[in-house]
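User: I'll paste a sequence; please echo it back and then give the predicted structure.

Assistant: Echoing your sequence first, then the prediction.
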Amino acid sequence: MKKSALQIARAAYRPQLPNVLDGPVKVKEGEPTVSAGDQEEIKKLFPNTYGLPEIVFEKAGTAAQSKPLNVGVILSGGQAPGGHNVISGLFDGIKAINKNSRLYGFLMGPGGLVDHNYKELTADIIDEYRNTGGFDIIGSGRTKLETKEQFDKGLEILRELEISALVIIGGDDSNTNAAILAEYYKAIGAGVQVIGVPKTIDGDLKNNVIETSFGFDTATKVYSEVIGNIQRDCNSAKKYWHFIKLMGRSASHIALECALQCQPNICIISEEVEAKDLTLDQVVDDIAQAVVARADQGLNYGVVLIPEGLIEFIPAVKRLIAELNDLLAAKAEEFAAVEPEAQRAWIISNLSKENAATYESLPAGVARQLSLDRDPHGNVQVSLIETEKLLSEMVGKRLATLAQEGKYKGKYAAMHHFFGYEGRCADPSNFDANYCYGLGYTAAMLIAAGVTGYMSSLRNLTFAPVNWVAGGIPITMMMNMERRHGHMKPVIRKALVELDGAPFLKFVKERENWKIGTCYTYPGPIQYFGPAEVCDQPSLTLVYEQKRRKY
């Protein structure tokens, strides 16, 4: 297979490990942990893996003699830049423990474990994928590991291959499944450890010890490059308002990071909309007022960033979606039998008065999309809702009204974009290449330490990689109970944008200037070679967050 010049050059890059992992390590245990919420319920569900201590690795004087390890690895959920480096780091880590260790990749996600589809990952294979984007080394999938039958079926192939540890690379739902699997295997004495690795470009899998999920840095830099390009075009043509929807169903981290990188005229933060109990009309009015203010200066152009999940954060719509989720879960067969032209009336007749009114008030297209098939986790597929078009059309109607009232004399033309898949499989930035390799290597050390139900962790991420702190945290520490498919279930609590956090406060301080002025910045493409200030900087979210932290 022919490779590009960049592929060849990137293959030569050697990720930097924390100094502590450069040689034998020993475990330093912290205090016992508790879950993020609903402690008693989580403790009852995870009696064997709840309350475990945080772990930090320290240098050990001499290496203990270790036997070979057979380890399995799964890529779960959507792609994120750096997944191949997690596997590379895991491979190198278990080989450092014992050169005869072996790594098996289960194909196309968790379904590969259940269906016994796998391949051994040898040095020749691993070397082809170092520092590359994508998940194509073994593929990924969204099969949920949640039933005893699945666990037992997976255990058959683990025992056949003499695999003693399984590493699941995924987001919050995938790592929730990892915790459930770890608990089950521990309870039955299966002798299989389960370790998670935090992956999601959305940035919503984090806390004070998981500082960021891998892929967020690369994806936001990819999006920021394209947003910057659009801003340059916008400032050149001076005649379009660009409405740009960005990935981020459950949180606005991507939108906020891109705003900090690019300084657009408007960036909507879903968490702020919810906190202020704003209606859809109020969101539209805020944008329309900015269009009017710029038009008064002769500036009939601008850029608006919109989080993918905005519609779910508008309180009235959020209440509607919650009831819709329960209704369509409880009456799935009945709804499926309703003719398409009668579905809207059926839904309205089965909703509470308040939510029926909200549903009826929405444009027909958006209302229809809210009742489409759910994703595997029972959520509305908000990426299918064209929020960018909805907002631009509603803004246009508001401006027409203002024009009739003599309050707007500008020109308004809208362009629409959705940046999603473009950022998921880019070659990882130097930050993500180092971070992912270190997460994989740390996972190997957690396996060697004999623990299960832990997530690989690296901290101090705004420092040079050699100074990062390696260790692990119990996955149950991140969990609480939430309603899914009409039932309360244990899940990892999503990390939302903190409205009192340093990144958001920085944004608030600057956004009025960005709104009226034209303050665009142009980040340009990811740089892999050159000065550190150009190539190795972490996300601005991390930079601003850690200014208030002490180490």
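The longest strand covers residues 25-32. The first helix runs from residue 5 to 11.
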